[in-house]
Queue: 2 jobs
Job 1
Amino acid sequence: MAVWVVRGGKYGEQEGIALDNGVSEIRWLELPDLSPVARDSDEDSARAKLEHMYAEVYPQNSPGSQAVNRGQIWSFVRLIKKGDLILLPLKSTHAIAAGTVIGDYEYRTDLGDMVRHVHQVKWLKTDISRAAIQQDLLYSLGSVLTVFKPTRNDAQHRLQVIAEKGRDPGPGYTPLGKPDAGDGPPEAMPDLEEVAMEDIRARINAKMKGHGFARLVEAILIAEGYTTFTSPPGADGGVDILAGRGAFGFDEPRICVQVKSQDSPVDAPTVSQLLGVMSGFNVHEGLFVSWGGYTKGVEQQHKKNSFFRVRLWGAEEVIEKVFEHYEELPADIRADLPLKRIWMLVPDEDA
């Protein structure tokens, strides 16, 4: 058994389709049915077919880009087998989904216009917390590729354990049976933006747990022009921060804020409790901040029932706000989270 990472789009736009339909999929939508590549018993012939198909559809791509993308497509179509493990990093919840491949490559036209190339997958877990994965292994998951097989830092062994038990056994783990390393390409150069984000997440997680995380959220709200009151450490009565516009916080919008710094995702009943708290304070708008994200279905239920009353922030939103207001944050927070802005060339988007 091999362990593969197959991403759900640059912005996570394909995650819901994959999880809801029990598939793992890749884009490259313009490519035709790749079954001739998947089924050809002659590997050289299969590679020639894929090279021809790709060059016909994407002639504008550089030779290097064509080679890299063909390698990913080859891995998905030919090398991923029934019984292999698929990991899907989720942008929407910042968790990781894990599933077992139960079908060979298929070309599908029944899942909408944005899905064509798939494997059927039985999703086993959809809420593996990144906080349960040690930093060296997170780096191994941070490739720029859409499809790859993590190999650095004993990744194949450790990811099997994480998928089964939800925890990272750490480097040097020696399993009873080694997973099949296969012959697919390992992860390429890391995505520097993703690596930096993981470092920042780890720093916030280490330095700002509990009341410290609430203080970070309060500092962001102050930078956005709110006057705030934060509950002292301990029982908070269901609200961590009260915030309002104006010098005294009397102006609209006035909001109740609930903050959760735990690594595990928050469920719908917990989010719903904020609505009751808001009524008690005679406040019409709220903000729920969950560092560990939200369980499946929370955001959909939120849009249906409370979109115009409550906003949901996860780790991504908090970090984006930190970037936006970093220079306005208190000196002690900036000391605990020292950041430096850098510039780098954005790679061409070929697919």
Note: The radius of gyration is 23 Å.
Job 2
Amino acid sequence: MSVSLGHIIEGKRIIESSNSPIKVFNPSNGKVISTISNASQKTINKTLNSSQRAFDEWKNFSIAKRTSILFEYKILLEKNIKKIANIISKDLGKVHDDAVGEVRRGIDNVEYACGIGEIMKGEFNKNISTSIDSWSEFSPLGPVLGITPFNFPAMVPLWMFPLALATGNSFILKPSEKDPLGSMFIVELFSKTKAPKGLLNLLNGDKDVANELIRDKRIKAVSFVGSTPVAKKIYETAAVSGKRCQALGGAKNHALILPDADIDYTTDQLISAAFGSSGQRCMALSVAVVFSNIKEKFLKSLKTKTSKLKFGFDNLNSNSFGPLVSKEHLDSVKSYINMAKEEGSRIILDGR
């Protein structure tokens, strides 16, 4: 029996009934492990009010006190690295080493946020012109919204909210509906610190919830990571609403293999780039351009190594990479292979 995950407001789970719950699958076996529901208008309003109250309190905390709370959070994350990684593996299908690496890179961002005092100081310049001095200072904005993708459910949120909080803002996280478990756990960890309740809230749901939050005047800034079409749409919506916005879209990565390249080293790096996180990341390499005089040597090395990659559903601790996050993603990848074949490409190794 799957469990409804609800939302996290002021450190507590808020469970809502829904006529159309969103199923969360374990991609390793296809089983439903939990469900979420779109946050209702009532819950969204409650969350925004909570974030505003927390902001009104938090903005008056000294930088030193904010930093001490973030250090407290960093320690909690470090103590729970393996647990967070296991949740990510179950929810996303990411192999254990990749999941651990993701959490560690997220913790690096928390550590950076702990040193925010040096950046927040502002500056003062005397006599920049006759009888004129100048100074700059930084002020928090208010509640900030973060909309994060499925492929890094811990790292990308940890890019966002530690820095938003360190600079005096409150934060609402809207994680991907495909794999919210890891994001929910790191938010619940934060509720164990001495921060004001409601400083970091989490709402589950699909694009309707995200759009509702973006349009609300209480949200002062938006941070997004995801596909380019959605990034453009979110940036447009935020701009029309007069909000600050950073919207990071997808990428298309290429490699140029020169004649003097170390082939063994190069193919190692290409395989890591292409298959890490099962290719489900913006830095996944999709095109390699090789000089003709090293083509055969390059292809032989690449094919030999790729054929030895271990995959499957049995053990994510020993696999080279895990399953794709959903059947839709699998169908999409298969369509790319078919398209390449139809356009005249030669498939040298087929894993279908």
Note: The mean pLDDT is 92.
